[in-house]
Amino acid sequence: MSLATSTTTPSPAKTAVVPVPSGRPRPRLLALDGLRLLAALMVCLYHYTGRGGVVSASWHQNPAHIFPTLSRAAVYGNLGVEFFFVISGFVICMSSWGRSLGDFFRSRVARLYPAYWVALLLVTGASLVLPAVVHAVRFDEFLVNLTMLQQPMGVPRVLGVCWTLWVEVRFYALFALTVVLPGVTYRRVVLFCSVWTLATVLSTAAGGPWTELVVMPQYAPYFIGGLALYLVHRFGNQALPWGIVALSWILGLRMASEGAWHHGSPRDPYVVMLVVTLAYAAVAAVAAGWTRWAAWPWLTTAGALTYPFYLIHEHLGWFAIRVLHRSWGLPAWPTLAITVCTMLGLAWLIHRFVETPIGPRLKRALKSPPRTTG
């Protein structure tokens, strides 16, 4: 889920070798929708109560002093990103099965860009109203941000969280060109996972900016684990995909614990490893079919809100905190609750009035015109 992926599933494992037509409706894995929102809320609490810097400026003091208990847990909320990447590997493998490269490209563009463009406009507007929260970028920089290519172009980001989208886009490109283009099969996904794992280990040992850019060793294990877990879901309990999951989990623990001291405040590596393990375990439970009981309709809404909520919550949330807490004098806990609920409400509006009508139209517009003869 990735953040911006549907959680529908194709036909059961017994008929897995038969490609699923791209137009065929697929039942949702509702538990994945819930996990996606959980990961987004983890990142949200990290941005509101688990770090200092501009967050302290918005609260007018370090959030660790305001929320001493919550803040001790929220400092690990940034691991919601790794959680997202495991879900993303699972869902991208699931949603691309039986689809052409064109279908895959259109679905990604239609899903990612409409809410992203609106989030850029909203945060840019907030930067003009209250520059202390986020600095406005130049017009040319804003235009580059519209393409989602600001990081490789060295342009300042409007959305702080969009660095994860650049990671996702590179994963999509790798998977599309090596697996989706020839056609997604069990063997191709296994080969992709195996080669990417080997490249991750070699690039970690050798280093270098190009291998870092393409291989993404810091995040590759989570995507690989999600891909392998989908194979478990689709084909049942086989040793090979479970072995890939286990190896990716081990490498993921290493990557996460190595970065435990790189986020502004020290983190217990054992707590980091526990959180990463729980992320893998949660997606593994979905893969094994242990979460079929989670069939509450509201989980569909939760999944739909996740991507727009993730995009807008950081800077607009800091804006809301500064206004509610510092300008209007609202106590900290009500400010936190109102801010989170407001961001969820705004995410629903974006989903309802932007993603729902514009996404399908954009997808249709990207289709090739019919061939004509003569």
Radius of gyration: 21 Å
Pick out the low-confidence regions.
9-26
Share of residues in helices: 55-70%
Q: What's the total helix number?
A: 15
Beta strand count: 0
Strand content: under 5%
How many angstroms separate the termini?
45 Å
Structural class: mainly alpha
How does the major sheet shape up?
none
Query: What is the H-and-E element order?
Result: HHHHHHHHHHHHHHH
Label the overall shape: globular
Arithmetic mean pLDDT: 89
Spell out the blueprint of helices and strands.
Layout: H1 30-49, H2 54-59, H3 63-66, H4 68-74, H5 80-96, H6 101-129, H7 139-147, H8 163-180, H9 186-206, H10 209-215, H11 220-235, H12 239-258, H13 269-287, H14 298-327, H15 332-365
Helix pairs in contact: 1-5, 1-14, 5-8, 5-11, 5-13, 6-14, 6-15, 9-11, 9-12, 11-12, 11-13, 12-13, 14-15
